[in-house]
Amino acid sequence: HPIGGGLNTAGNTGLSQSPGHPMAGKYDPDSGHLRLALEMGWIGLFLFLALYATVIITGVINYFKLRDPLLKGYSLSYSVALFGLTVAHYAQDALFQKPINIIVVATYALMIKVKDIDNANENA
């Protein structure tokens, strides 16, 4: 199905959260990307991969445009960390675990605001 079976329907989580669903228990996705594909379909998988790529590319572009060396370091280090987590998400469900998802969301926020912080520091 192009939009998947729904959230928490695949694997052992599906047995407890969505009992009776056709994917519950049958397909235990070890890969985070496979879980995305099963639960959100290929459309959801494409949207998530596009989001990851956009954030990583924005971080690299920000690295070359920023003037403050500390902000450049933050931008590049968070981009590299997100890239590593995205690669690890291929083998296991790495991006949506409790302590890691805080870093992922912080990376999204940092890539959006880092240019504004750099401009505010320059004007001050």
TrEMBL record:
Keyword list, A-Z: Membrane, Transmembrane, Transmembrane helix
TM helices/strands, residue ranges: 40-61
Region of interest called Disordered, as start-end residue ranges on this chain: 1-22
Keyword check for Transmembrane: yes
Name used for this protein in its record: O-antigen ligase domain-containing protein
Species per Swiss-Prot/TrEMBL record: Marivirga lumbricoides
Lineage: Bacteria, Pseudomonadati, Bacteroidota, Cytophagia, Cytophagales
